């Protein structure tokens, strides 16, 4: 059962959020073509940022020519996650006149880390610069300015038109910190202080190490599901599934008697195998996936019903149990194949053209249909065939749901 317990749940079953982004060129690079390579690079950058969140089984898909859909299940702080995904992470060092002194290209790649200030033990972020002399020259020049202009302003995602004076007045400022510089600092390690918590400092270090996004992301659509709502959806879906499957099992036992019992056994094995295969595929189970699983049970039952009805027809014509089983199984196979192949083709079209939720439904449906051939078709026939060949069912047409008055003499 471990394989089934390890199945990853989608955001609609455990909470989380889904956001659709439109990819746009960076400011000043309007002529940049949004091509497949640039989209792939953006997906890689987003994956690196998601690693900072510690989210398992994220789903990031390219849609169309300029859109990316991100699904993160199990995220508790959704605002933090959205900010972390969409921020450009362009770190720049400017003076109070907004003149650029140093930017991310002057930093050592992967050199950001969360730390603590020695005197106060407050969380800080440290970054490593490539050239200590460059940083020394910058700090020396700024230190000679009168207060309060002797500040080295550290920006995150500075845009043309932004200004130090206006940004300092804003509550949600792009300025990470603006320390005063009183002397030349000849060091490769730059300390960034601010109103950090340990978590926010670690997040900033993480996105700086992940690197700046090569594009701008505009949020087009957001679908958010709370953890409690996801849990309720899971409970209701499982409850509905149990009721639906129980009704199917009850009908099969009541109407097909012994053959119905064979169907119940093989269908139980079918449900377990579908979930195991789904886990092996590292797929994420969603509400549409559960719907596809229940629909697959119906498809598998349909295969059994076609076979059982053919067998009952043969028994009504007065054939022996052995000959009725062989003739019924042979005549039903082509009908079952036709029905399932057409459904697989339809599911394939849904997977190719559909979005993530529709694709999850299509994958579960295809897995369900293929598995039903192993259990509901061949498994049921194997078990029933063993009983028929043992001759324990000879002249016991009632066990097949056929009454004596329905049997015609040959």
TrEMBL record:
GO terms for cellular component: plasma membrane. It comes from the Bacteria. It is a multi-pass membrane protein. Keywords: Cell membrane, Membrane, Protein transport, Translocation, Transmembrane, Transmembrane helix, Transport. Residues 41-98 form the Protein translocase subunit SecDF P1 domain. GO terms for biological process: intracellular protein transmembrane transport; protein targeting; protein transport by the Sec complex. Residues 216-387 form the Protein export membrane protein SecD/SecF C-terminal domain. One of its GO terms (molecular function) is protein-transporting ATPase activity. The chain crosses the membrane at residues 236-254, 261-281, 287-311, 332-354, 360-388. Residues 102-215 form the SecDF P1 head subdomain domain. It is found in: Cell membrane. Gene3D superfamilies: 3.30.70.3220, Multidrug efflux transporter AcrB transmembrane domain (1.20.1640.10). InterPro entries: SecD (IPR005791), SecD/SecF_arch_bac (IPR022813), SecD_1st (IPR048631), SecD_SecF_C (IPR048634), SecD_SecF_C_bact (IPR055344), SecDF_P1_head (IPR054384). The keyword GTP-binding does not apply. Its main location: membrane. Belongs to the SecD/SecF family. SecD subfamily. Forms a complex with SecF. Part of the essential Sec protein translocation apparatus which comprises SecA, SecYEG and auxiliary proteins SecDF. Other proteins may also be involved. PANTHER family: PROTEIN TRANSLOCASE SUBUNIT SECD (PTHR30081:SF1), PROTEIN-EXPORT MEMBRANE PROTEIN SEC (PTHR30081). Part of the Sec protein translocase complex. Interacts with the SecYEG preprotein conducting channel. SecDF uses the proton motive force (PMF) to complete protein translocation after the ATP-dependent function of SecA. This is Protein translocase subunit SecD. It comes from Alkalicoccus luteus.
């Amino acid at each position: 059962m471990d394989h089934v317990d390890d199945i990853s749940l989608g955001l609609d079953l455990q909470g989380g959020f889904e956001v659709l982004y439109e990819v746009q060129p960076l400011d000043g690079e309007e002529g940049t073509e949004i091509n497949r390579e640039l989209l792939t690079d953006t997906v890689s950058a987003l994956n690196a940022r998601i690693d900072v969140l510690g989210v398992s089984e994220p789903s990031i898909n390219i849609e169309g020519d300029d859109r990316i859909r991100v699904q993160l299940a199990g995220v508790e702080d959704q605002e933090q996650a959205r900010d972390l995904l969409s921020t450009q992470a362009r770190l720049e060092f400017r003076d109070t006149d907004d003149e650029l002194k140093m930017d991310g290209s002057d930093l050592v790649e992967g050199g950001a880390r969360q730390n603590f200030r020695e005197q106060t033990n407050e969380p800080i972020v440290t970054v490593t610069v490539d050239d200590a002399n460059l940083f020394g020259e910058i700090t020396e020049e700024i230190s000679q300015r009168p207060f309060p202009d002797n500040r080295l302003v550290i920006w995150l995602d500075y845009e043309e038109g932004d200004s130090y004076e206006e940004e300092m007045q804003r509550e949600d400022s792009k300025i990470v910190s603006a320390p005063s510089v009183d002397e030349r600092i000849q060091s490769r390690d730059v300390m960034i202080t601010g109103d950090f918590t340990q978590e926010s400092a670690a997040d900033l270090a993480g996105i700086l190490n992940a690197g700046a996004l090569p594009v701008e992301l505009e949020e087009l659509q957001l679908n958010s599901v709370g953890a409690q709502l996801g849990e309720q959806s899971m409970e209701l879906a499982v409850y509905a599934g149990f009721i639906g499957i129980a009704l199917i099992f009850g009908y099969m036992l009541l109407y097909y008697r012994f053959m119905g019992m064979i169907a119940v056994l093989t269908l139980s094995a079918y449900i377990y195998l579908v979930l195991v295969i789904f886990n092996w595929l590292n797929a994420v189970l969603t509400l549409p996936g559960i719907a596809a699983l229940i629909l697959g049970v119906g498809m598998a039952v349909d295969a059994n019903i076609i076979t059982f009805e053919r067998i009952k027809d043969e028994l009504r014509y007065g054939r022996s149990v052995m000959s009725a089983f062989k003739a019924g199984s042979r005549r039903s196979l082509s009908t079952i194949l036709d029905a399932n192949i057409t459904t697989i083709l339809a599911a394939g079209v849904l997977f190719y053209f559909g979005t993530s939720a529709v694709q999850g439904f299509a994958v579960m449906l295809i897995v369900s249909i293929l598995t039903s051939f192993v259990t509901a078709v061949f498994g049921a026939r194997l078990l029933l065939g063993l009983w028929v060949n043992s001759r324990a069912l000879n002249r016991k047409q009632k066990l097949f749901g056929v009454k004596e008055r329905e049997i015609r003499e040959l």
